[in-house]
Design goal:
Length: 471
């Protein structure tokens, strides 16, 4: 026998009334008025609770609405099916299920359960505190032509363990492993079971020069090795330690933070370098660092050669919440830089970063264009650009030295960023550049992501080249 809606309403009203003092009086006496059901708004919003209602349409459940004698007879069959349905819901909405055990939900649907045996209610109350995915008993098969089916819910996939993010020092070591393994292999073959003599020192100096460390640093290292050790055996670990110490000595003076003088807002950073060395990516990462620190940044799409370059910078602008000043392709880069300066003044930016088109250092005409950007900016503000940052690709070897040489002369480079130290880097050249140019190295790029720009640390870098373990 089915219960008529009016019977259900009356039943609900009776069951709910003592627990729901806010319910308007007029609703209780009106058999045809179901509006009081609307007071269960919070439950209606819960998908878990609707699913719970689904289980009521099982034939065995329908039986439980029959007069109580029949319900009691049906109860043993009902129990496994109910248990399983509930388990099926729980993993999908664990938080809501917990809430459902809390009060309002229990009270609202208690009328549905009142004709079930007491153990059943006990089970339902304690279920949320049980294991997240208890083993479910097999569901009793439904009659073949019942005209309905229960929605199957797939168990949620196990939460994927977050990928461990390796530290930047480890990435640096991996990136420099090509340089460092060549050096350590040479150290092993040169120094194992051999007394230190002139030939060994000469061979080692050659190895250091081949690793791009530069003649000056290579000689300092071999001089240091020979001190008090001539004619004696020296362990490979000792050679590596001395190597790291000497490289660090060269790098410490250039490992400086980028200083921004906001007395002269906006601080203008012009970013220059050979094609593909990571200018635009570094600008994006730097803008992220600065904006996170609360500084306002404007970006200037000074690479007016390629539409893709402008788009690339705009994406970084969006990611970092920085305004991007751009013009049509082919526009004069110096003119654009000039306008961007005014815009940055207008919007009260702390920092203006100007991207430029990559160019080979031996293309005089393009290099002259860089000079023009400097000239035009300095008309607007004598000290601008305050920082001229050159990006160097760490996978380039010796050529980086001449890149710095020429860009420094043409556009007054006064700071460096070495990018791609996460790849198959040949970082030794940075030591030679530091020894020769003594330009500050502000950051190193250790990946393509927004957070993959790290302050340059002399000790870590030296240790990575010498193949020392990360400390
Ligand atoms: N692995 C790695 N890739 C980098 C790093 N920095 C930049 N790149 C990648 O190097 C490629 C070139 O980077 P860009 O920033 O476009 O270089 P660019 O100097 O602006 O290039 P042009 O505008 O063509 O001169 C891109 O694929 C970057 O994702 C880094 O630190 N590590
Ligand atoms: Mg670019």
């Amino acid at each position: 026998m089915e219960l008529a809606p009016a019977d259900i309403a009356a039943h609900r009203a009776e069951a709910d009334r003592p627990e729901d003092p806010d319910e308007p009086d007029g609703d209780a006496g009106d058999d045809d008025d179901f509006s009081f059901l609307d007071t269960r708004g919070p439950i209606a919003e819960s998908p878990a609770d609707f699913s719970f209602l689904d289980e009521r349409v099982e034939p065995v459940e329908t039986a439980s609405r029959e007069p109580s004698a029949a319900a009691e007879a049906a109860a043993p069959e009902v129990e496994p099916a109910r248990e399983e349905d509930h388990v099926g819901i729980q993993p999908a909405e664990p938080g809501e299920e917990d809430e459902a055990s809390g009060g309002e939900d229990d009270a609202d649907f208690s009328w549905l359960d009142e004709d079930l045996p007491p153990e059943e209610e006990e089970d339902r109350r304690t279920e949320p505190s049980g294991p997240a995915v208890p083993a479910a008993p097999p569901r009793a098969p439904l009659p073949g032509d019942s005209g309905f089916r229960l929605r199957e819910r797939a168990a949620p996939p196990p939460a994927a363990a977050p990928a461990p993010r390796i530290s930047w020092a480890e990435r640096l070591r991996l990136g420099l492993s090509r340089s460092s393994s060549q050096l350590t292999d040479s150290i092993t073959s040169l120094f194992t079971k051999r007394r230190l003599d002139e030939d060994t020192l000469q061979d080692f100096e050659d190895v250091l020069i081949q690793a791009d460390l530069g003649v000056e640093t290579a000689m300092r290292i071999t001089d240091r090795l020979s001190e008090g050790r001539f004619g004696k055996e020296i362990a490979g670990a000792e050679v590596r330690r001395i190597l790291a110490e000497e490289i660090e000595k060269t790098l410490v003076p250039v490992a400086l933070p980028l200083e921004l003088d906001l007395e002269k807002k906006p601080h203008v950073i012009l970013v220059v370098g050979v094609n593909g060395t990571g200018k635009t990516t570094t600008i994006g990462k730097l803008a992220a660092k600065l904006t996170r620190a609360g500084l306002k940044v404007t970006l200037c799409a000074g690479d007016t050669f390629r539409a893709a370059a402008v788009e690339q910078l705009k994406i970084w602008g969006e990611r970092t919440g920085s305004e991007v000043v751009a013009k049509q392709i082919g526009a004069d880069a110096a003119g654009l830089a000039f306008e961007a300066y005014d815009r940055a003044l207008e919007n009260d930016s702390d920092v203006l970063i100007i991207d430029t088109a990559g160019r080979l250092q031996n293309k005089a005409e393009l290099m002259a264009e860089l000079e023009k950007i400097n000239r035009v900016l300095s008309k607007r503000e004598p000290d601008a650009p305050h920082t001229v940052l050159q990006t160097l690709d760490a996978t380039t070897g010796q050529n980086a030295l001449s890149q710095v040489e020429i860009f420094r002369n043409v556009s007054g480079v006064n700071g460096l960023v070495m990018t791609k130290l996460d790849g198959t880097a040949r970082g030794g050249i940075l030591v030679a550049i530091a020894a020769k140019h003594r330009l500050p190295v502000y950051f190193v790029g250790v990946g393509e992501g927004i957070d993959d720009l790290e302050p340059f640390k002399a000790k870590d870098f030296a240790g990575a080249i010498a193949g020392l373990p990360v400390t």
